[in-house]
Amino acid sequence: MSPPDPTDLLAELRAANEDLARRAVAPVWYHPALGLLLGGLIALQGAALPFMGAYYALFSIALVMLVAAYKKHTGLWVNGYRAGRTRVVAIGLAATCTILALGSLWLQRTAGMVSAPLIGGAIVAVITTIGGFVWEAAFRRDLRDESGL
Predict the structure, then answer these.
(1) Does the residue 1 lie in any domain?
(2) Residue 108's domain spans which residues?
(3) Hey, which of 15, 73, 91, 120 has its CA 20 to 30 A from 113?
(4) Structural domains in the chain (count)
């Protein structure tokens, strides 16, 4: 038995990556739903504790449902902080959302701007939605550029 031809192996790898790139497209509602969930998390920071607790429970359940829907739709799940372009997008999103969350809380508690969490939540919802589509495009590009998983 002769060893496999490296050219054939590379062709198989490229084909597998291309297949993954085609499959790794979330339902069109996925990123807006995640954006609304995260935006709501920020927006409710000024609410009474019972409302916050209820939202945390809803958020957790909805997040599990989002992951399940993504897996069912694409047949896979990918760590958002994987190596490649996606890590830059994910860390940028996390840092931006954290800064906005802390900034809105600071404005609410020190400057008395009661609407700051609502405004911050709306901004986080939009940024998360856009960032989700950017992350997805970065993942597909990584696959097509042979950065792989």
Answers:
(1) no
(2) 31-144
(3) 91
(4) 1
